[in-house]
Specification:
4-stranded antiparallel β-sheet
Length: 328
Amino acid sequence: MNKKLIRIFTVKVYLDKDNIMIKKFTFFLFFLIFLSNNLYGLENKIELKINNEIVTSLDIKKEIRYLKALNPKINDLEENKIYQISKNSLIKEKIKKNEFLKNYKKIEVEQEIVDQFIENIFNNIGINSKNDFIKYLKKNNLNLKDVEKKIILEISWNRLIYSKFASQVKINESDLKRKLLNDKNNISRVYFLQEILFKVDNKSEIKKKYNIIKESINNNGFEKTALLFSESNSAANGGSVGWVDEASLNPIILENIKNMNAGTYSNPIVIPGGFLILKIKELKTKKKEININEELERIIRTKTNEQLNQYSQIFYNKIKKDSKINEY
């Protein structure tokens, strides 16, 4: 606060004839409140209202710090694009939270599970211990609670999706087991996949949107483009899906990528909830382990997660469409 300004006003009040001290104090207090409110307003303003929750400029700045800390590659993007990514991230967060609380009284997750996710996060960014991760967050003006809060919300959202859609997951276990038993080839391909999930309001816009994404991939790389355009939760990690065995892949997806080489990406693949572009970052072969039950369990788990992720995206798109989102 500008002390010179305060002195000017207090001197003028002091020169008044009656009730000098009372007037001086009252005017000074009023001016102090007025100036403080205006300074605060310059620092923080409402940017969004999602249903009944607001998002301020300070919320977005904090989200930027969070995203940069967990994915330093975001720093390579233009500031206005980073700002937009952060706004979209908070919109998704608020919508998920609002929907979850329609179904449950509070958001809570067992600490042991949260700690497992925390460990995965700091390992992915090359940090070796929780204490080092806490120090790293502090350098970025964040704390562990900030990260835990987001993890708890995402786990809670996944539990909501499971409760709503688990009964609709369709997996033919006997067919999978038969294929495993009949497969004489003991060599399997394993893909390290990256993804960009996008949607359009009209099918006629698919080619146009895909060309925009392709241009961005050519200019900025796949990971930065995932940050900019992907609707998937993996966007914050540059679209990284991780290692996936070909036996776990949806037949339609496998058909689209089986002849691709490492470093290339697919045309848009139609899936429930949008259109998927897949890049093979790495490709390797491995000798299959001859344990039918373990392999079957792994494939069922992967295919279950795949279908639940699709239901999650469809459900989120629906509630987002029904949400009131106002930008200021």
